[in-house]
Amino acid sequence: MKKTFVLGALAVTVGVAGWLALNASSLASSTMTPSVGAPSSFNSPTGSAQLTEHFLSLDDIAKATPTVITGQVAGESEKFEYHDVTFVKTQIKIKDVYRDIDGLEKGDTITLLQTYVEEDPIVDKNDEILLFLKKYKGPVTTDAYRIVGLMQGHYKLQDELYVAKKEDKTSKKGHSHEQHTQESDLLQKASTGFTIEEITSVLEQVKYQPATKSKQTAQEDKEEEEKRKQIMEELENSGKLGDNK
Fold this sequence. Notes:
By secondary structure, the chain is an alpha+beta fold. The chain has one domain (3-47, 55-210). The protein has five helices and 13 strands. It has helices at 58-63, 177-181, 185-190, 196-205, 215-238, and strands at residues 3-4, 10-13, 19-22, 35-37, 47-48, 67-73, 77-82, 85-99, 109-115, 129-135, 145-147, 154-158, 161-164. The strands form three sheets. Strands 4, 6, 7, 8, 9, 10, 11, 12 and 13 form a nine-stranded antiparallel sheet that branches. It has a two-stranded parallel sheet with strand order 1-5. β7 and β8 form a beta hairpin. Mean pLDDT is 76; it is low at 1-33 and 168-182.
């Protein structure tokens, strides 16, 4: 059965270009069930999520991205559940660093955290990949990166071009990929691929611009965090949190 993540009372920061919102009542049945294997050995994702970031061009995603690398999967991936959401952790060995603010170097290995949904195609051990990344901040894991814009920031090398890594859904239930995901302008352009020269040229011309928050937005975030803590306390006091029956 396909699961679609919807708005609810508790939001968990994940890799879905911002927030995946979960209903707080789902925490009562949350479990962690890790499995390990090559990314290609996992079944196709049965979940779907709405993209909250839509980029019109390479310029747009470059402006929103602090880290851009090429690399390959190093070893096996771990699939696990956290609060009823399935995640995949994969080690990526860096081939080249084209932009970075964290001191990454060629040959380093990083942890990539992905959400097991169609819009975040899992990295393939056979692909040489180019990723637009941000450090992950949240409760799911530590010291990991997430892909900016999900499939909008995930490219594989194909015939000397970096092509957007996305699942072909044309054959699934009669719906095309464009109908299902309302594909962004960037993805439409990336279907034919970019040369590494095109990408590096944009990265040189367009600098990373960290998002800034207004005082009002910061206050709203603070209030939302207080509400989240209150929900967690209520669940803990009621005995629902951690009850896996």
